[in-house]
């Protein structure tokens, strides 16, 4: 199946280190070669602008991914995805993460898993462009959020609503997901998802998928906080926490709340 990567930070943070190791799992250190994508918010804490890149080529060989491995990605909220197709052809429209607008904000969604017999009634303006179970789930989720709230609620209220909605999707199969609107990062585990929170005092981290290390103390301030959520740990010398089956975690300003 696919793999997920999410970052949530209290300051715009360089994500090149994490993305470099993650993208190698698309054909070099693993076999997730059916497309990839990344979306990240840029700017102030209330930034609504989004950069969104997808490609049906493997991330390990994609010219767009090569560009981003050298692009100074600095973001407070980021979601990336490398695909191993289970439903839907290998095509651009089926690449995650998917993006929709709700309450005047962009929402970004990526899914790892497989949903059987999931054909919800979509009666609003949220409709899938491709033919994946993942995009159908995202459209239904946006539809139900819009029905539940007249305007953008607080992160706490959104979390309560998601706790009611996500199990209705998860009962159809494997449903690991990342979701962000630029204010927070939500992570729901079905089988495999883990996270780490980096804060002062920062140390050196070494990637599992590449012979590359970074001393974060040289690139951060004492007040910086960074949360990283990923399908399988990115580094070999840090302690990662696994989410339980059915657990929903929300990260704000680089820490779990």
Explain what you see.
The structure is a single chain. The protein has 257 residues and is α+β, with helices and mostly antiparallel strands. The chain has one domain (3-256): Glutamine Phosphoribosylpyrophosphate, subunit 1, domain 1. It contains four helices and 15 strands. It has helices at 16-23, 63-69, 133-148, 155-170; strands at residues 3-14, 36-41, 50-55, 74-82, 98-102, 105-115, 173-180, 185-188, 194-199, 204-206, 213-215, 225-230, 241-242, 248-252, 255-256. The strands form three sheets. Strands 3-2-4-1-12-9-13 form a seven-stranded antiparallel β-sheet, covered by helices on one side. A six-stranded antiparallel β-sheet has the order 5-6-7-8-14-15, covered by helices on one side. A two-stranded antiparallel ribbon has the order 10-11. Helix 3 crosses helix 4. The protein is globular, with a radius of gyration of 17 Å. The two termini are 28 Å apart. The relative contact order is 0.19. The mean pLDDT is 88.
Secondary-structure blueprint of this entry?
Layout: E1 3-14, H1 16-23, E2 36-41, E3 50-55, H2 63-69, E4 74-82, E5 98-102, E6 105-115, H3 133-148, H4 155-170, E7 173-180, E8 185-188, E9 194-199, E10 204-206, E11 213-215, E12 225-230, E13 241-242, E14 248-252, E15 255-256
Structure, briefly:
The chain is of the alpha+beta class.
User: Order of strands side by side in the largest beta sheet?
Assistant: 3-2-4-1-12-9-13
Task: Name the structural class.
Answer: alpha+beta
What are the segments in which pLDDT stays under 50 over at least 5 consecutive residues?
A: none
Give the name of the CATH superfamily: Aminohydrolase, N-terminal nucleophile (Ntn) domain
The beta-strand count equals 15
Shape: globular
CATH class: Alpha Beta
Can you summarize the main beta sheet?
7 strands, antiparallel
SS summary, helix count = 4
What is the second-level CATH architecture?
A: 4-Layer Sandwich
User: Roughly how many Å is the radius of gyration?
Assistant: 17 Å
H/E element order: EHEEHEEEHHEEEEEEEEE
Strand content is 25-35%
Mean pLDDT: 88
CATH T-level topology: Glutamine Phosphoribosylpyrophosphate, subunit 1, domain 1
Question: Distance between termini?
Answer: 28 Å
Helix content: 10-25%
Number of domains: 1
């Amino acid at each position: 199946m696919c793999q997920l990567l999410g970052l949530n930070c209290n300051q715009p943070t360089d994500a090149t280190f994490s993305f470099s190791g993650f993208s190698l799992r698309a054909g070099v250190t693993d076999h997730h070669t059916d497309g990839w994508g990344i979306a990240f918010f840029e700017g102030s804490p209330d930034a609504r602008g989004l950069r969104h890149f997808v490609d049906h080529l493997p991330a390990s060989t994609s010219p767009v991914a090569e560009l981003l491995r050298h692009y100074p990605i600095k973001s407070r909220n980021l979601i990336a995805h490398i695909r191993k197709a289970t439903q839907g052809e290998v095509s651009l429209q089926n690449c995650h993460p998917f993006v929709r607008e709700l309450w005047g904000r962009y929402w970004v969604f990526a899914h790892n898993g497989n949903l059987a017999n999931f054909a919800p009634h979509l009666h609003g303006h949220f409709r899938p462009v491709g033919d994946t179970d993942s995009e159908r789930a995202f459209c239904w989720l946006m539809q139900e959020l819009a029905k539940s709230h007249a305007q953008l609620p607080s992160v706490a209220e959104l979390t309560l609503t998601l706790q009611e909605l996500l199990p209705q999707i998860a009962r159809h199969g494997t449903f690991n997901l990342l979701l962000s609107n630029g204010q927070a990062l939500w992570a729901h585990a079905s089988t495999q998802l883990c996270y780490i929170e980096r804060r002062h005092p920062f140390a050196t981290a070494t990637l599992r998928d590449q012979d590359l290390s970074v001393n974060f103390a040289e690139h951060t301030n004492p007040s910086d906080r960074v949360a990283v959520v990923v399908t399988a740990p990115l580094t070999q010398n840090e302690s990662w926490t696994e989410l339980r089956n059915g657990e929903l975690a929300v990260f704000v300003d680089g820490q779990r709340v």
